[in-house]
ATP-dependent DNA helicase (Trichonephila clavata), 247 residues
Amino acid sequence: MFAKIESERLNWIRHNRKKLRSEEYIHLKDAITATDGQLSELGKMVVLPSSFTSGSRYMHERTQDAMTYMRHFGRPDLFIAFTCNPKWPEIVHLLNHGQKSHDRHDIIARAFRVKVKHMMKLLSKGCIFGNVRCHMYTVEWQKRGLPHVHILLWLEDKIRPESIDEVICVELPDSNIDPALYEIIRTTMIHGPCGHINKSSLCMLNGTCTKKYLRCFREETQTGEDGYPLYRRRSPKDGGIVKQIEK
């Protein structure tokens, strides 16, 4: 479906912009300075306008928009990733008998768009992290075909370093307090098993997990020597929750 749509969009551009030519500036400069250069033959007949999604001009304009936010509001306060789950009821209930989610990319795209709009409404209007000055996001596709978004938020009240643990951690929630959230994290956000339990895992290289699991316990979030954060992961005696890994 996506290939058909993009093919039609490219055909429209191909048949309606024949009078325009395009070429990289370095090649244009070489042609002008060359004594035998034929400028009338330089370049291509088809130009992808900025209205063509993911084209070079489109991406350049979106980059300039993002930099405008940076210049005006400074660095964003939060970077949030939101990934499509092919087991969402909104997707599964619309599949025909015998179909898998990867057979219906149209359903995945529609369900994901609705979820993203709701997510952005919660973030921008629900004041989950406080009042939001502005936001932006970009949609990308994983190799397995599922979409995900990267979201940037600029907050009116900046998050202080001592408040980081109130925003993010790498701990299991209490299943008695929030069983739904516990089940989501248990089934979709736990790495492995790897290490000595599963030495054939794709993350293993020379007997070591390339993702650096299993992580050490920490009472609070710290900054590692490489600049990456080491999130809070409390031990059971400090109030953390552990789960037995099943192969």
Observations:
- The two ends are 38 Å apart (CA to CA).
- The longest helix spans residues 105-125.
